[in-house]
Amino acid sequence: MTNALVMILALTLWHECRGEPWAGKMSVASVIYARAEGRPDRMKAVVFAKKQFSCWNRRSKTRLAAPEIRNAADMRAWRECWTIAECLAAGTFKPSIKASYYHERQAKPSWARRMVAVKAVGRHVFYQAKRKAA
Description:
Blueprint: H1 3-17, H2 22-35, H3 40-48, H4 72-90, E1 101-104, E2 115-121, E3 124-129
Antiparallel strand pairs: 1-3, 2-3
């Protein structure tokens, strides 16, 4: 586990879901985990993949931005993001849901039609790919 990986994962969680409850942060982390197939050595590539996590998109205003801690709630959120990121990076994370995709509730991405909704948590809806018929 490297501090750089923990920081990348914590920043991803911060920018993607800092206002969410613990369950929401765990669900977003579960998507990272699923896409990386549980392997910490793949997680950096997962979060930096083009157009996958909006906070790392080239034109994102939050790209490479440090967290802005303005109050106790922000500090609590940052600590939660960091704690979850440490577990992801150490390989000790236990996913809370089986999902590989998500979006904010108000968004209507075209890709969601090709997915199966797994669960709504906080402001996000989580999905898995549809299984192909045998």
